[in-house]
Specification:
261 residues, 2 domains, 10 strands
Length: 261
């Protein structure tokens, strides 16, 4: 649901979620995290949504992480606060279970929980002004909830380096480390994200869902069970109407007409 702090719009199959707190470098409040989670959950069963783009308002920041000055005030008691801190984990799970591709549009700072939010997206498109980091160690904290998206996005030594030092990484180094998909000139960021989202939205939603789900299912598996799972998924995908349509369209030299099943 849209709020003043979270802007939500849908156009041409693309759901855009914009954290709208530029005066706080788009830091996440509890309401923002819950709003993102609700929007992602709603997108899972919304046939009008084929792609989700996550970003922050303005040019300065994607998201600077948790609002440390305000995220302890909306809950009462230790257990309630403990449960609230799990909201980011719930958001990550909702994004990975979405069944539809997600893109992080990163114009500037992506720090701490905001770094994790970007890495929880399938693809990360960064402006050449973008900066990334997990600086929690500098204030006596640790990026616990961000660990999983970090380990899924780069090598273990690179992830631990960022956690132990809290150093900030520029866009080009992020590309070399592998957790950013593309780096573009700042003025080209919107056009690049729009073109990528349109490309993803043009693919078969049925095959996209099955293939993406298979990817996340095997990413943490040993090789043998992963290959067995992928073998089964290959047969399953070949039974879909969209697979038959794709092959027919290729043979007929025409654009496919996806039915999403």
């Amino acid at each position: 649901m849209p709020t003043d702090d979270l802007l939500v719009s849908v156009s041409d199959g693309v759901l855009r979620l914009t954290i709208n707190r530029p005066e706080r470098r788009n830091a996440m409040s509890w309401n923002v995290v819950r709003g993102l989670r609700a929007a992602v959950a709603g997108a899972r069963t919304d046939d009008d949504v084929r792609v989700v783009v996550v970003t922050g308002a303005g040019d300065e920041a994607f998201c600077s992480g948790a609002d440390l000055g305000g995220m302890g005030d909306e809950t009462e008691g230790f257990l309630a606060l403990h449960d609230a801190r799990g909201e980011l984990a719930h958001l990550f799970r909702a994004m990975w279970d979405l069944g539809k591709p997600t893109v992080a549009r990163v114009p500037g700072w992506a720090m701490a929980g905001g770094f994790g939010l970007a890495l929880a997206c399938d693809l990360v498109v960064a402006s050449d002004r973008a900066r990334f980091g997990a600086p929690e160690i500098k204030v006596g904290l640790w990026p616990f909830m961000v660990t999983v998206p970090m380990l899924r996005s780069m090598g273990t030594k690179a992830a631990l380096d960022l956690m132990l030092t809290g150093r900030v990484v520029a866009a080009e180094e992020a590309l070399r480390l592998g957790f950013v998909s593309r780096v573009v000139p700042h003025d080209d960021l919107d056009a690049t994200v729009d073109d990528l989202a349109a490309t993803l939205a043009s693919r078969s939603p049925a095959v996209m869902r099955l293939g993406r789900d298979a990817f996340y299912a095997v990413v943490d598996m040993p090789a043998d069970p992963a290959l067995a799972h992928l073998h089964a998924m290959l047969t399953l995908v070949n039974q879909t109407e969209d697979a038959a349509e794709g092959i027919a369209a290729f043979t007929d030299k025409r654009a496919p007409q996806w039915r999403g099943r």
